[in-house]
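Chain A, query sequence.
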Amino acid sequence: MYPKVRMIDDLRTGIQNQDERIIAKAISILENNIPDLSQSLRKEIYATSSKTYVLGITGAPGAGKSTLIEALVSSWDSQLKIGIVSIDPSNKMNGGALLGDRIRMAPLFSKPNIFIRSMSNRGIFGGVNKSIYDVIQLFSFAAYDIVIVETIGVGQNEIDIADIADTVMVVSAPESGDSIQILKAGLMEIADMYVINKIDLAGAERMEYMLRENMKVQADGNWSPKIVKIQANQRKHMDVLLQTIQEHKTYLTLHNQLYTRRKNHLKKTIREAIIDRFTSRFIDPILQEVSFENHLHSIIQGTSSFDEAIDHVLLSIEKDVKK
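Chain A, predicted structure.
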């Protein structure tokens, strides 16, 4: 056997045995898109249907997302295998995640049924790392019951969580300017439920009122986003939150929305992968050519147009495709 074949065999066996060391190694391979290995690994993990429930959690910094996740996971059956992926801002120097899961979710780290991983968003708008869909599929291949994906921040560009999660939870806290910003952002359109955390603070009722005034019924017309008020650090009303999550999961199943959502998620993921590979194979080499540099110089000098540079790239691609 070739070394690569042996490594893939070891990875497959380790993942299926839920070996956390092997799972961590496999995630790194997918996240860094290691040549040959990542493609071979994807062939393995996509050879099974996805049965893992994916809960996406997003919200303003300081809203208490990590505390909420700790309380939520502690409330679930300890027999459930749960993966937690926290997508953090990138370190501009090395592309790595700035925040550490060991620090923010330390109480969960020692639990044998929990696997926690931080991933960098690699500076990508939308709040999620491009390899996250592969990582979710890896957890499914490992027979995990639930995957929680926590994304950074809030705002118009943090809505890609809806393209990977079965259920999207938006977390806010009273008297938070960033949380109020949710009302103006794309998050209003993608949330399946809103969680108001830290209800012991002044302003919780006002936050609930503002959310109810701004809520919109989801596109399918049947599920109306729910509002749940909790105090995660005291485990207050966690039973209501668990019930709401289960209600949405049941709704998705009964109305065939789970299949529809996952199909749409996969379609967008494949589309983005095609664009990435096409760009790498055809566009990037053209952008390095002297002729394109000349177009840039001409635009700066005012003797050529933006559209002419684009037409140059498109004509070059057409020639490459016809070869």
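Residues 91-98, 123-127 have pLDDT under 50 and may be disordered. DSSP finds 14 helices and seven strands in the chain.
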